[in-house]
Structure formats: structure tokens, C-alpha cells
Amino acid sequence: MSEAARPRLRRPTIPARASFGGKNVVMASRGRAPWYTPDGQPVPAYVIGIAGGSSSGKTSVARAICKGLNNIPTVLILSQDAFYKHHTPEEIQQAMNNDFDFDHPDSIDMELFAQCLHDLKQGHATEIPVYSFQEHQRLKEKQYLYGASVIIVEGIMALQAPEMRELYDLKVFVNCDSDLMLARRIRRDTVERGRDVDGILDQYLRFVKSSYDNFVQPSSKYADVIVPGHHNDTAIELLVTHLQRQLDARSLRFRRELVELNSMAPTPNEELSLQLVPQTNQLLAIMTILRNANTKRGEFVFYADRLSTLIVEAALADLPRQPKDITTANGVPFRGVDGDDSNIVGVSILRSGGPFANGLRRVIRDVPLGSILIQSDPKSGEPLLINLKLPLSLHSREQAKTMHVLLLDSQMGTGAAALMAIRVLLDHGVPESSITFLTFLVSRYAVHSVHRAFPSVRIATAAVDDHLDEVRLPIAPGHTLGEVSADGDFGARVVAMQDDVIDFGSDGELETPTGDRLGISLRFSRIERKEKIAWVVKPGMGHIGDRYYLS
């Protein structure tokens, strides 16, 4: 029987600091690159199925593949052990007496296993069961999983069910000598689980060996690759090389493509998705203060908070409301509208979305708030999903279908960060028509971008700026690449420049045209400087996050 400790979710860094406490492991590095096309359509994750006998080395192979993928943002190891079926009291008693066959295919909830894997492969969030081997029972709690570029499924029955095999891009079988598997099992169960050798052998002969002969080993015919259960460094290296090549072919670089696509004529009905706050003299005065480069930080913060409140109120004005009959304080019947905002949540795109949090809380006091940290890769300028903390109501896809989400960011330039944030919400089950993007200003390019990919998403804003230019910004000496990573929608990338410098010294002589001789030396040196290339909205407001929080 393939037993494990209660599954736990870990988020270590690949590869050096990776640690494995359970069999379900999420490994994240510097951020998740776009997993969708410029039209917003998701690119499926790459899925590897690894099968083999108990103690054959399946988990070791999966972990070795993870450690070899240095440049992959997120890798998930999904274990079969989480999907044992719910047991009756009689079955639990059999398990306690070592009389229950956990190595038979019928012990696994393959339908749920395949559904969860299908959701993860399509980029959707899912919740997997949590199984306790101490209680021999599936627990009420579930484990939330989301956001894997590579999914490695491991289990003795990983290749046995056709519905699972259809989801794999690569099928691997770990072949190991039966004597070695038994020796490993005895050592593991005596050392780690405190069992006696007689009990281990009895269980092995009654259940484990027959399962391997009848189900596990025959499934090896479906494998694309057979990997030895020990001394398999060469096989692992070949697998990693193949996987890296497949992932490189799927990689997307589309920020410039967004700008080029968005330079075209507006799409039909595009303005219907844009909600422009009424351009009153009051609003125009606030925008003038915020655009002014000479506005002091305190004044900028005050008017930014004021503007955020106006935009939030404008966005909420068009949300559907149900009629509600009440009795006034004067005892008079009155028909109004329901003010229940319990199905509304806010999600801030950090860090520039922070200014909207105060405005939203002034309108809806107890609104649940989440955050998405999106920054630009300093080498490519592409957006990276760094961190994700969504309200609990969005963890369940069923509940997410009933929610309306206000996405908060200070401005939209290329629309790359907006597309990523919207894609995250769709992956969690939020309907496209239930997403409203709130922003101080938006470029005309970003309006094209969002509407083309997600025509039902509304944008509530105070201004639409017509220009989006790629500019070079100097970087102060001593800054590292990480420190100059921009907010996701600025799309900044870092380039290194080299300047030749002449240093005048006092050694040697140089004759001038008049015959004078000067003591001089010329030393040539090369100084490296760095620049940040970013897409900037014009006339714009500058970097709103920096102006709000720093200066």
C-alpha cells in the first residue's frame, strides 16, 4: 500500500531550497509568466504521468525532474494518495486491521482525480481532497491548488485509467527490481512508520505483489519512456531536456504584440465596455492636480483617495440590484433597492492598486479584499505573477460564480497586467461579465486589448489617454535587477549600456600645434550603466504607485 503523511502544500524555491514534506508539492520560483495568448485564451499546462510499483522510486523521479527545471516558474507534484475514496466504518476497521486492499484500482476515486487534473491542466483553480492515513479516511477539508506550468502526477495507478492517460503529455514508467522494491518498503515502513517485518511481508504478499502483477506492471505498455528505479541520472537528464524543449516552444512573448494589435482601429461596440466617470469640472480639477508633476505627496494622496471614491461609486452605480420593500422610520411603506453587497469583493493589483483600497472601503465598509502582485520581468519586460492572495470566496469555483469582483489598479498602459489579473479571476470561476476593472486612467491601447480578449469585462475610469510610448529611464548606480522591476503594467525591462571614458592623467608628454609640451596621460576605461525601458502612458500621471507611497 502506497502510504504517505497527510498531504501538505509547500511553496519553496526551485531548486536549491526545495523541500518536500508531503507528496503534493507546489514549487514556485521568481514568478509565473503568461499562460495565455494575447487574446486571453489559456495555454494548457504540460502534464507528466509517472507510474511504477510501490517503493519503485516514482516520487524520487518526480522530485529530480523538478530540481532539473531551473527556469520553470511553477511545478506541481500531484499524488494519487490524496484521492483514496471515502470509506465506510466497516472499511475503516478493515484498514486498521491491515485487511483492506489499498492497492486495487477500485480504491482510488479516478473520476475525481481526472476532474481535478483536467481543471489544473486548463489553468483553473481546483480543490483536491485531503486524506488521512492515520484515520484511514478522507477529511472534510480540501486543499486549494492553482497555477502550475508543469504538473507531475505520480502513483502506482497513474497509467492504469484511460481517463487519466488522455490528460498526459508524457507518460513515464519507473521500472525497478521486485527485490529492491521490497527491501525499500521494509526499510521505509520499519524506520518511518514503526511497523514490524512480519506485518509488512504479510501485507506485501496479500495485496501489494498481486496488484503490481495484475495492474501496475501491465500499465507500463502505455508509457512513452521507461526509467530505471535506481542509477537513473542519465534518464532524468534526458527527460528534463525534452521537457525544457517542449516548454520553450510554448513560451509566449506578447507585450509588444499587444501594442501592435491595439494600434488597429477600435473593435465594434468597444465603447460599451468603457464606463467613463462624468467629466465634471470637479473631476477635471482633481485630474489636473494629480497629473501635475509639482503636486506634493500629501496633496497627491488626498486627491487620489478622493478620486478612487468617485470611481468606485460610479462602478457600483450600474451593478444589478433587487427591489426591496421596507417601512420607513415614519411608519410608511417604501419600495427601494437591496443594499446587500455581500457578493462583492475587491482585488488590488499591487502595488499601484493600493490607492483604491481606501476608496473602496469608504463605499463598502467590510468588503473582502485580496491582492495580486504582478511585476515585469527585468530581462524580458513580460508580466510575471509573483504572488496571489484572493478572498476565500474565490477559492471555490462554485461560490466564485456568484461573486462580482472589482479589480483595482491605478492605470492601464499596454493592458498586459490587466489581462493577467482578469485571466486569474476567470481561472477561479468568476464570470467574465462579473468583473469590473477600476483605474484612474487607461490608454486607448489597453481598452482595445481588454475588449478584444474579454469583451464582457467593464472598465471604469476617470480618463482615457491616447498615447503609449516606449521610453528609456536611467537607473541609479547600485540598483539590482530586482529593485528596478516595475509594476506589471509599465512593462519595464533592463538593458546594460557601455560608455568609453577617457581619463586624463599627468604621465608622459603631448606636443601641441604651437610646439608646447604638456605632461599628460590618456587612460581609456569602459563604464557600464543600466537603463530601464518601459511603456509609459502620455500625458499620464507618472508612476502613481511611487507618487502615492514614496515621494
Describe this structure in words.
- It comes from Cutaneotrichosporon spelunceum.
- Residues 277-478 form the Phosphoribosyltransferase domain.
- With 551 residues, the chain is of the alpha/beta class.
- The chain has three domains: 25-250, 3-Layer(aba) Sandwich (Rossmann fold); 264-466, Rossmann fold (3-Layer(aba) Sandwich), CATH 3.40.50.2020; 469-538, no CATH class.
- It contains 15 helices and 21 strands.
- The protein has helices spanning 58-68, 89-96, 110-121, 162-165, 178-191, 197-216, 233-250, 255-262, 281-291, 297-317, 355-363, 397-400, 416-427, 444-453, 544-549, and strands at 25-28, 46-52, 74-79, 126-132, 137-145, 150-154, 170-175, 225-228, 274-276, 323-327, 333-337, 344-350, 369-376, 383-389, 404-408, 411-412, 435-443, 458-465, 467-474, 493-511, 517-538.
- Helix 14 (444-453) links the parallel strand 17 (435-443) and strand 18.
